[in-house]
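Progress report, Aim 2. The chain analyzed during this reporting quarter is listed below.
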Amino acid sequence: MIFTWLPMSHLPTPPCEFVDLAIELARQDVPNTAINQLDPKFLKRQIVKDGKVSNSRIQQGYELGADWETWVRNNIMETFVSTGGRYSAGDNTTIHGAHVDSRYNNVPVYKLYYLVDRGGEDATTYFFQQKGHPVEREGHPTSITYCDDYLQLDTIDQVQFPLNQWVLLNTNILHGVEDVTGSRVNLVIIFASADIAQDLAKLSVLNHGVK
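Predicted structure tokens for the chain:
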């Protein structure tokens, strides 16, 4: 089953203490400690959209501590690649450009995503297919698959994720966020297992019907 995103309303709500911590650390603009974004071209990319050139926002990541990781293992899943808080950062831009997340040990990764601040009432996530490429793309461990020229992209889905609810995000499809005008903060659990992703997808279909 190929999907862009699916609701995970059956997963438990994180305790308020971790949500509050994620928001507080985002306000402090803590250093990036959780995301591998070492590709300098990706960090300095220029988005070309609607005839205009702009910088791209990026996701800054930070840890939420051992208690958070214990809660995730006891309530969501025992094994994961990383987990913590994220916020959208960037100067003079409202666009987080289209990209595919890095692979882990050459295995595709997926993301459980819990949005606590949308970053503006119009902030929207888009999924794309690049012309001449498959829908699902192969990421790389040390660099990131992305597309800066939006004339090469066809939108295949768009969504404003529900606040304070887990969703399953297929990060192997080009995706990005537009119209981010404020603080966009989320909790995230990244895991590297297509089998787990498919099992979660089947649960979503059972709970919500085919999306």
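Helices lie at 16-27, 40-43, 66-75, 194-208. The mean pLDDT is 89. These observations will guide the mutagenesis work planned for the next reporting period.
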